[in-house]
Design goal:
single chain, alpha+beta, Ubiquitin-like (UB roll), Creatine Kinase, Chain A, domain 2, 2 domains, eight-stranded mixed beta sheet, 33% helix, 18% strand, globular
Length: 453
C-alpha cells in the first residue's frame, strides 16, 4: 500500500482524520451471524500490508461460540483465508479513545478465489447474477431495534430503558415525537457517529414497542447498503452504551411488544436504459413487477431460515403484532408479508416485510434478492392481491427453526443462486445452534411441567 494511502480514502474518512494522526485500523469481516471479526493493527502496519489472515473456522462458529461440523472433507484444520481490504468501506470508529478507522475486508482462498460462504461474497454473487442479465438491483433497508435497560442476568426479563423523563420508555406510541425525545441523548450520538462515518439517515421514528426505534436508509447498491447496516449495528450499540443502556436487534426481545424487522425495499433497473423494470412506458405495472412478487411468494418460505435465523426469530411472527404471518401481497397494506408501497412509476418497488433485524444484513438482502431473481426468471404470476386485513388469513410460513431449515435444505434453485457451498455450511451451523437450543430446559418448562405432569 502506498505511503499516501489516506489521500484516497472516502471523503468522510478523510474529513474525520483531517489534522489528526491515525492510530489504528480495525480490519474486519462479517461472520455468519453478522458479528465483526478481525484484527486491530497500528496504522503503520496497515500501510505496509496488502492482506492479513484469519482461519476459515470463523464461518463455522455458532452464535454461542460453539462450532458446526462444516469444515468439509479435509476436516477441521482451520485453513487460513486471505483477507483483502475494500478501501471504499473505510470509515471512522468515532466511539474509540484514539483515532481509528474500520475497513471491511473480502475473503479469498490461497488460489485467489472468493470464499463462497463469506456473507459479503454471497451478496456479491447474487448482485453479479443480476448484472449478467443486464439488471441493477436497488434496495432500501429499514432497521428496527430496541433501547433497553442494562441486563447482565440472562434469567431476568428484558425491560425498556429509562427515558429522559425518568420513566421507562412507553409502548404503543408509534411515530410520537415526544417518545423520540425520550431517547434524545442516544439519538444525538447515533446522528453524530453516522455523520462521522459518512452515512445518510433518511429518518428516525418511534415504533410501536417500548423503547423501539426505526432508522431508514436511502436506497442504493445492495452491497453498500448491507455494509452500512453492518456498520450501523455496531454504531448504535456503542451509542447506547454511552448512556447506560443496551441496543438490541433481537427479533423479539420483549414478550408483549412487537418484534424488530429489517424491511427490505426492492426495485430493479435496466442497466442499458436506467429505467425501473417494474414500470412500463406509460407508468403502469409491468409483467416483471408481478413476476418479482411471485418470486417472493414461491421462494420466501425456503428463505425464512436465512431471514429468521434464530429460534427467537419465530416469536416475531405473531398475529396482530406488526409482523406478517403469511405471504399475501397488497398495495399500501402493512398487514401483508409482501407490500407495494405508495410511489410513482420511477420509484415503484416491492417490500419484503418478513426479514427480522436479527438476520445478517448481507445474507438477508442476498436471499431476498435471490427470491426476486428466481421470480423474474420463472415468469410466474402471483396470487391475487390481498385486500383487507391479512392477519385474518391463514398462516403459511414456518413457525420454528427446524421446519425452516428443512425447507431451506430442499431449495436447490435457491442454493444455485446463493452458492451451494454457502448453503451447505449455513445449514450445518444453524442446525448445530438449533440442537444446542433444544438441549436447554426453559423456565416455562420448569414452572408448568415440574410438578404437573
Amino acid at each position: 500500500m502506498s505511503d499516501d494511502w489516506t489521500a484516497t480514502l472516502p471523503e468522510a474518512a478523510r474529513a474525520y482524520l483531517d489534522g489528526r494522526r491515525l492510530d489504528e485500523v480495525e480490519c474486519i469481516i462479517s461472520d455468519l451471524p453478522g458479528i465483526a471479526r478481525g484484527k486491530a493493527v497500528p496504522s503503520s502496519k496497515f500501510m505496509r500490508q496488502e492482506y492479513f489472515h484469519l482461519p476459515d473456522s470463523i464461518f463455522y462458529q455458532t452464535i454461542t461460540g460453539d462450532w458446526g461440523e462444516a469444515a468439509g472433507e479435509d476436516g477441521f484444520i482451520e485453513r487460513d483465508m486471505i483477507l483483502k481490504p475494500d478501501m471504499s468501506t473505510a470509515t471512522a470508529a468515532p466511539w474509540t479513545g484514539d483515532w481509528t478507522l474500520q475497513v471491511i475486508h473480502d475473503a479469498y482462498d490461497r488460489k485467489g478465489k472468493l470464499i463462497e460462504f463469506a456473507p459479503r461474497n454471497v451478496l456479491k454473487r447474487v448482485v453479479e447474477l443480476y448484472r449478467k442479465q443486464g439488471l441493477e438491483p436497488i434496495v432500501a433497508p429499514e432497521m428496527e431495534f430496541f433501547l433497553v435497560a442494562r441486563n447482565i442476568d440472562p434469567a431476568k426479563k428484558i425491560e425498556p430503558m429509562m427515558g429522559r423523563s425518568g420513566r421507562p420508555a412507553a409502548a404503543r406510541q408509534a411515530y410520537s415525537m415526544t417518545a423520540v425525545d425520550e431517547f434524545g441523548p442516544v439519538i444525538d450520538d447515533i446522528y453524530d457517529f453516522a455523520e462521522a462515518q459518512g452515512f445518510e439517515i433518511d429518518g428516525i421514528t418511534q415504533e410501536g414497542g417500548a423503547g423501539q426505534l426505526e432508522i431508514n436508509l436511502v436506497h442504493g447498491d445492495p452491497v453498500k447498503l448491507a455494509d452500512e447496516v453492518f456498520y450501523f449495528k455496531r454504531l448504535i450499540r456503542e451509542a447506547a452504551l454511552r448512556h447506560d443502556c443496551y441496543a438490541t436487534f433481537m427479533a423479539k426481545p420483549i414478550a408483549d411488544e412487537p418484534g424488530s424487522a429489517m424491511h427490505i425495499h426492492h426495485s430493479v433497473l435496466d442497466i442499458e436504459t436506467g429505467q425501473n423494470i417494474f414500470s412500463g412506458p406509460q407508468g403502469g405495472e409491468t409483467d416483471a413487477f408481478f413476476h418479482y412478487i411471485a418470486g417472493f411468494q414461491n421462494h420466501l418460505p425456503s428463505a425464512i431460515a436465512v431471514i429468521a435465523p434464530y429460534v427467537n426469530s419465530y416469536r416475531r411472527y405473531v398475529r396482530e403484532h406488526a409482523a406478517p404471518i403469511n405471504l399475501e401481497w397488497g398495495r399500501d397494506n402493512r398487514t401483508t408479508g409482501i407490500r407495494v408501497p405508495l410511489s410513482g412509476p420511477k420509484s415503484r418497488r416491492v417490500e419484503n416485510r418478513l426479514a427480522g433485524m436479527d438476520c445478517n444484513p448481507y445474507l438477508g438482502i442476498a436471499v431476498s434478492l435471490a427470491c426476486g431473481l428466481l421470480g423474474l426468471n420463472e415468469e410466474k404470476r402471483p396470487d391475487r392481491q390481498f385486500k383487507g386485513d391479512a392477519y385474518e388469513g391463514e398462516e403459511d410460513i414456518p413457525r420454528e427453526m427446524g421446519a425452516a431449515l428443512d425447507l431451506f435444505d430442499e431449495a436447490k434453485d435457491l442454493h444455485d443462486i446463493l452458492g451451494p457451498e454457502f448453503a451447505r455450511v449455513y445449514s450445518i451451523v444453524k442446525r448445530a445452534e438449533y440442537e444446542e437450543f433444544l438441549g436447554v430446559i426453559s423456565p416455562w418448562e420448569r414452572e408448568h411441567l415440574l410438578l404437573n405432569v
